Amino acid sequence: MDRQRLLIIFGAAWMSALALTWFLYARTTAPKAARTVKILAATRDLPAGTQLKKGDLKLVAVEERDLPKAALTDPGLAYHRALLYPVNGNEPVTATKLSSLTGADGVAATIEPGKRAVSVGFTDASGASGLIQPRSRVDVLFTRTGSIGEALTATILEDVLVLSIGRTTEVQPLSTAAGASKSTPVRTQNQTATLMVTPEEARKLEFAKNQGKLSLALRNPLDRGTTAGAEPATAESLDPMLAGRVTRKGRPRLDRKSWAQLTGEEEAPKPKPEAKKAEPPKPRLVVDVYRGEKHVQEIFQ
Question: Mind giving me the DSSP string for the chain?
């Protein structure tokens, strides 16, 4: 009887140890069944401004704890909407990367509400040697030519977003001499940059385009500061003694005849002097002659 009771106790202890071992193994090494959620992702690399269609999206499963913020689970919420930013293949498509206007097409959907897109021509010399790319931030400089007193350069716009360079709306990789791909577009010297500005800035920019020369200054995207009230650069800022030398020499005289030829205006004729009336000659000699009561003056010339 004591032998049977001992076997029962030993068996119960063995089963308890086996159960405890399995529990510890399941908690430490056994794989866990995590909950997953299917979200929308891009099937291929999509540039900014692309209007999403059925073949551009797919559903991928991700763990619930790794769910991206503003992720979309319904394809109907993304179709016929435009991308505001480029998306790589298999990258989740979130609501923050899509335009808010349903049915918007192309780059127009990337223009923020209350903003306008205005194009500015530039060359390598006036546009940071071609280093300006889409999504860059630039300052717009205006230069007015003319005489020494009229010429100046001023910053008319600061911290402006570049929407596109030509028709390119995404950043192009820099080509290398050894491994440049054949599909890499060749940038020409004369280009146009489309800037995103307010309506007031658009009017100022268009006026400046017709009054002088515009240049673009590339700036650090993290530098969002502005220099309000900055004085324009003039000839005096380059040569402080210029004003004194011009004052000593005096202002140049205006050649009215040359000005009339340049402007096509006829020079006003000078008034003729009025003719003076001839005065009677003054007598040389006057003699008083008395004859009785008569008095007569004899004039001798």
Answer: -HHHHHHHHHHHHHHHHHHHHHHHHHHHTSPP---EEEEEEESS-B-TTPBP-GGGEEEEEEEGGGPPTTB---GGGTTT-BBSS-B-TT-B-BGGGB-SSTT--GGGGGSPTT-EEEEEEE-TTTTGGGT--TT-EEEEEEEE-SSTTT-EEEEEEEEEEEEEETTB-SPPPPP-TTT--TTSPPPPSSEEEEEEE-HHHHHHHHHHHTTSEEEEEEE-TT-----TTPPPEEHHHH-TTHHHHHHHH-PPPP-HHHHHHHHTPPPPPPPPPPPPPPPPPPPSEEEEEEETTEEEEEEE-
pTM: 0.52
pLDDT tens digit sequence for 130-186: 788 888 999 999 998 877 777 888 899 999 999 888 877 777 665 543 444 444 445
For the record, the structure tokens of 42 come out as: 């891009």
Question: b vs e for 110-120, b when ≥16 Cβ sit within 10 Å of the residue's Cβ?
Answer: bbeeebbebeb
Tell me which of 138-152, 168-182, 235-249, 285-299 is least confident: 168-182
Among candidate residues 76, 81, 87, the one with its CA nearest the CA of residue 109: 81
